[in-house]
Amino acid sequence: MSTTNYIGKPTSRVDGPAKVTGTATYAAEYSVANMAYGYVVSSPIAKGKITKIHAEEVLALPGVVQVFSHENVPSLAWFDRSYKDDVAPGGSPFRALHDADIKFSQQPVALIVAETFELARYAASVLRVEYQQEDHETSLETQRAKGYEPGAGKTGFQPPPAPRGNPDKAWEEAPHRMEAEYVHGAQHHNPMELFSTTVEWRGEGKITAYDKTQGVMNVQQYLTKIFGLKKDDCRVVNEYMGGGFGSGLRPQYSAYLAVLAALELKRSVRLTLTREQMFSFGHRPHTLQYLKLAANADGTLAALQHHALHETSQFEDYTENVVNWSGMLYQCENVKLGYQIAKLDMYTPLDMRAPGAASGSIGLEIAMDEMAYAAGLDPLEFRLRNYAERDQNVDKPFSSKKLRECYHQGAAKFGWDKRTQAPGSMRNADGKLVGWGVGGGVWDATQQKAAAKASITADGKLTVSSATGENGTGTYTIMSQIAAETLGLPIEAVTFKLGDTDLPESPLQGGSWTAASVGSAVQSTCEALAEKIFKLARKMDDSPLRDAKFEDVEFASGQLRLRADHSQAVVLRDVLQASGEAKLEADSSVMPNMVKQNGYSLHSHNVVFAEVTVDEDLGTVHVTRVVNAIAAGRILNLKTARSQVLGSVVWGLGMALMEETVMDHKFGRYMNHNFAEYHVPVNADIHDIDVLFVEEEDDIVNPLGVKGIGEVGMLGVAAAVANAVFHATGKRVRDLPVMIDKLL
Ligand code: MOS
């Protein structure tokens, strides 16, 4: 429609200046008058009951305002039984301070509110709480036999597809076979920004909650149900976020506790959790995966089985799609997929970037490497021989799939053809072992219903808004690009607003669906506004567009002009001024086009090539090069998209080599709940990372042709590194992270 061409260009973040100059305001930074401060007291035991809380001892401290616990929580809280949030799994969500029961270590048992943060923290440190301890079970290994198949619960959970062919027989008869178990430890989200909620008391039971969340609408819905508030009386705001990765998908107990205190005390309250406490509300589950693959003499897959088991809490059935991808990433006629969860005395796991697929691609992609070696094939060649042209899980063609181009372009960029197959056969100039590994994955391209509003003023400034979120992914920027592109305006003339329940309803930011969902709403809204402007332009005195149809015109360079003759133009500002309107508005709500999508499987794909060097004497692994090639439809912004994928790769390296939350089963407690002992990659761990996008033309997914890139970049990274370690050393590590002790 226009020629400004913002879409697809590497545009710098429009919110960048606000972030680097400190004017971007985060949840814990809103200044509110007469604020009290909260601090959470967490349970040291994993299971049992609270028998006594000596609240009076800390209430005696001058400046301590209140101690909230199950003993004095207002009876109306949790009254409405429909307090499930948008992404709640099956079961009954945890209710903080609801009763004396302890269900997991670090469970919040009390909230101290004081005049200063320091005093609240001090009071929390001396509050005596007595418990009656019960035996807990926190080991997935010992609960293997108690695994069960979850029912559908959480939105988006698909039970594994029915088996096809005869995988057991095919495995028995095939010339090449492998079977193995793969394990990875639990991981915790560690965004830079801590979880915090600043609740502004607006009087008469009205509040504004500045909350760290990926979904303001979700938090508003949750809070209004729990406390019986009207939506207008409970505004939720999140304009900036220092990382989410899934930790902000569900409303966290910090939001509930801060609002509880504000409503009870009729005063503004801020509550911030500690880094330690952020290990108490959800994690990527510790997962056991069993894979059994067979290959024919020609290198085609004869059989594939993938079974996974991971933990959940006693009160909710957390589910993620771990194994389903294995039925569609490669062509195979004999497939059986199984998925179970087992209850433990811990908090419910929580979606973490590419939930399920990040885990599942560890099992599948290391198993594919093992299978390739067993069949005597190069691991990339093995993947090419088993390329899936159709999604066999649903027996539909892909709306678009350029994974083959990713394989070729990624391999060329990496120099894969110089790889020698034998483990331990490559060394660098320093004499260190060199290994090259490959891995990859597939992720859903989904679109949710979303709404937006656009408003243009007589000075030519456009404001577009939607209640979506921005985790730091580039949402402000891509939405501004779409709006600028559609109305032919310079991006500087566009302001995009988000993260406020007063704005048009949109889904939470997750699932890599924001670009497709909110982007489509922004595009459609700006098109609706364009039509309104066009109608006014036709009515102007001596309008050169008087006889034009909407299809005949385009918006470019702040003008509205005939496509066939650019000299026949009117200036946008003049249209508005001539109309006498101070501003012109449009809004729309967009749903995915189910009719168009019905016959297709909608997915994004990637492949990752990794190089490691291994010091034989010390067992240290360095990831020296990574190429990540991604097919995810149209890329709206090469700069922010690349940045997203760089983050995915860094995290994938962490998953492969260092990240693991370790449970001490004696205490039923995660022991390394801090940055000193929960290791994530630092700059010194990161070397060359190359990101390639193989663009796909796809008008089936949505008119913008975008599939989203928040999660797909993470897939296969950990497996590629583990496979590279095998190639370097000949040691097959099936228990991630690959740490020194596993290589010596
Ligand atoms: Mo993502 S795990 O849907 O934030």
TrEMBL record:
A family per Pfam: MoCoBD_2
Gene3D superfamilies referenced in this protein's UniProt entry, alphabetically: Aldehyde oxidase/xanthine dehydrogenase, a/b hammerhead, Aldehyde oxidase/xanthine dehydrogenase, molybdopterin binding domain
Span list, region Disordered: 135-170
Domain Aldehyde oxidase/xanthine dehydrogenase a/b hammerhead: 21-135
Matching InterPro entries: Ald_Oxase/Xan_DH_a/b, Ald_Oxase/Xan_DH_a/b_sf, Ald_Oxase/xanthine_DH-like, AldOxase/xan_DH_MoCoBD1, AldOxase/xan_DH_MoCoBD2, AldOxase/xan_DH_Mopterin-bd_sf
Compositional bias ranges of the Basic and acidic residues kind: 135-147
PANTHER family the record matches: DEHYDROGENASE, XANTHINE DEHYDROGENASE
Record's protein name: Xanthine dehydrogenase family protein molybdopterin-binding subunit
Species the sequence originates in: Hymenobacter duratus
